Amino acid sequence: MSSDKSNEKLDRIVAQARQDREERDKGYRERALKMYPWVCGRCTREFTRENLRELTVHHRDHNHDNNPLDGSNWELLCIYCHDNEHSRYIESDATKASVDTQQSSTSTHQPFGDLAAMLKGKK
Questions:
Q1: For residue 76, is pLDDT > 70?
Q2: How far, in Å, CA of 47 to CA of 31, rounded?
Q3: Considering the domain boundaries, does residue 121 fall inside one?
Q4: Helix, strand, coil: what percent of the chain each, to 5?
Q5: Hey, how many other C-beta atoms are within 10 angstroms of the C-beta on 72?
Q6: Residue 103 lies in a domain
Q7: Which residues form the domain of 75?
Q8: Helix/strand/coil for 30
Q9: Which of 7, 20, 31, 104 is least surrounded, with the fewest CB atoms within 10 Å of its CB?
């Protein structure tokens, strides 16, 4: 396969993965916004339609594929508290990794997990 065709196929696969992620995100975001009051779960800042784009859905277990219908893995956080939560999680994970001699992966979300199979046309 020529390099141009390979690059085109990779570009299509990446674009499709991004589109799939955006659709998945939109689905649970819309459900969470219907379920919960438009208030940040940490700083209690209230939101209206004008600034609702600054309210995000945080996955409590950090697994973006874990989206139960009852919303039990979600909480609404403003963009600042959401960034802070992920920073704390990353710092905690880094501290744990430096204490442990074993390196373990805590991430469960693998957006390109099937990339090799897709490139080979098996999926």
A1: yes
A2: 16
A3: no
A4: 50, 10, 40
A5: 11
A6: no
A7: 3-97
A8: helix
A9: 104
Q: How confident is the model at residue 101 (pLDDT cuts 50, 70, 90)?
A: very low
**Span 10-39, pLDDT tens digits:** 999 999 988 887 776 668 898 999 999 999
The three-class DSSP label of residue 69 is: coil
Q: How many domains does the chain have?
A: 1
* Structural tokens at position 104: 């373990």
- The alpha-helical segments, DSSP class H, found in 2-123 are 3-35, 79-99, 115-119
Q: List Cβ neighbours of 102 (8 Å cut-off, separation of 6 or more).
A: none
Do 59 and 108 touch, CB atoms closer than 8 A?
A: no
How far apart (Å, rounded) are the C-alpha atoms in residues 24 and 35?
Answer: 17
Mean pLDDT calculated for residue range 31-53: 96
* Structure tokens that stand for 71 in this block: 């919303």
**Position 40 in a domain:** yes
Tens-place pLDDT, residues 52-69: 999 999 999 989 889 998
In a domain, 113, yes or no: no
